[in-house]
Amino acid sequence: MLGQKSNSNLALGNSSTASSGLEQLRWNDYKFDISNGNQSFLGRSSSSSEYAGAQSRLPSTKSLFGANPNPNPYLTSAAIVPDFNADGKTDKIWVDSQTGETQVWLMDGTNVIQKGSLGQIDVSSTVYKIGDFNADGKTDFLLRNQVTGENSIVLMDGTNVANFIPIDTLDASWTPYIGDFDSDRKTDILWRNNQTGQNAIWLVDATNPNQVVKSATFIESVDPSWTPTMVDFDGNGRTDIFWRSATGENSAWFIDGTQANKSALETLDPTWTFSLGDFNGDFRSDLLWRNTTTGENKIWQANSLLPNSVFFTEGSLTTLDANWKSSIADFNADGKTDIFWHNEATGENTSWLMDGATITTETFLSPTPTSSKASFGDFNNDGRTDIYWRDYAGGADEIWTTNTDGTTVTKTPIAETDRLSPVQVGEDGQVIVGPDGLPLQKWITF
């Protein structure tokens, strides 16, 4: 993990854009129209089904004072969970993998109260991350063209685009990760060069459209075989970086702005994969480890007694076979991450209510079709995680609203008028089938 650390700034270009009158900004093959503050993406379409969603990260704990009653920012921050109107209710993002059209739905429980189309993006070359770049409690986008290297921040206000701000171009070897490295509640960007191992942090303040990127600094390079994940191991509201190598080595970098202090961690062989949570509600990132070979599961609870340091308390959990996939949630609104398990082979579902590394309650829920995929959020602002089931076979989506006991749900079908086509159809009216013989998905959500 040796490399050259530099405090020299990356070149910063003009990152401002006017927002009055009728103007058109050309972004390679994308055209962005600004008219009376009502803005939309316009661009070419693609038949590719690839798209990118948000990275997992923990923002400043100041977000606890937001609109949602749940104290855990993992599950309520607009920088992590889509909330475009700052009402504390999770909203939906939809991408048509056939045309590239992108829609935003504002949710109120099981009702869609407003829809907005952001036009089309080229899903074969464009990836996006969500964040909150101006700390207004409303989810924004970072758009990146992986072919041209052009980047833009899109500030949202409900279903409307409040501002579209081009920022500096970086070549295709750079990948963005989202965090808050100076704890100002404004989303920042870690750039990683997948070829050279270089890393840079851009501190962002989108409240200043004339200089959105307030600093851009190289930090130490790390061999490309290492992968970063944004965490907060010491719970101070500043994003840290958890590094894991292809050989199973682990390291933590504690970040203060653009300064990094490093700490070596225990090695776990590559058969172990992880996801993030906060299982004891102390605002420190914990790790849920899963062995893809044996099905073993365990939790590392983060503890930090001294600045720039972390040690973990390990607790073993029930072993589950490889068909079970985990997601984080908080079904009883206690601010402690729970675990939802879905069996991709059988459609079985179960939830574990957690207190640290202890399973306090295990609940078996109704099975779902194997063609259905779950996404999670609090759609009614009661502090409890609900489940949106996307039916990629028939389009009969359903929302499971978690009841006050945290162990049962109320099932509500999505209204007929809100159903989106689940599969791609050709000009001849026939379903388009992929190389695996299965229909290609059309409208995708996360």
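Next protein, fold it too.
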Amino acid sequence: MPRLAIVVPGCLAACLLSLSLTLPTALAEDAPLFSADGYRQAQYRSPTPSSADHATTLDTPALQALLQREPQTRLVDVYRRTFLNGQFVEDEKHRNLPGSLWLANVGTGSLEPRWQAYLEQNLAHLTDGDPKRPLVFYCRSDCWMSWNAIRRAHALGYASLYWYRDGIDAWEQAGLPLQDAQPQPLP
């Protein structure tokens, strides 16, 4: 039985292929980077500003000095982890700074109510309800999630906020130890 073949002129075929490859990227680039209330909501792994409002930016020596000077300081890792069917999916091994609490996914551009409650409850527990307890938020270098998380912590009334901007990558590059990590469970 003969097959029916559709012949598309070369130029038209090339144009269709090009459009199919570039359209998703173009649409993603057209999405606003920031929400109306100022949270980064796209392209989380891209260059970050040198500072975050309401926080002191730390490099590795400054973080080490803070931890030495104020041992009550709490470390909060906000690196993303896939969450599917009510549980975190370990799609890659994650290591973070010793003594950290990993609150995965609280740095996305908008939080569903359950994720907002997860953040609020864990910060309250981590600080023993003291909004002046120093909190250091971090992720990886060039990661907007910790920047977003600082904004949320400030909105919740936390007053002693620090941003370890280059995060896990800078700690590791300094030859400092990391620990295997699992995210704090979502209730």
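About the second fold: DSSP finds five helices and nine strands in the chain.
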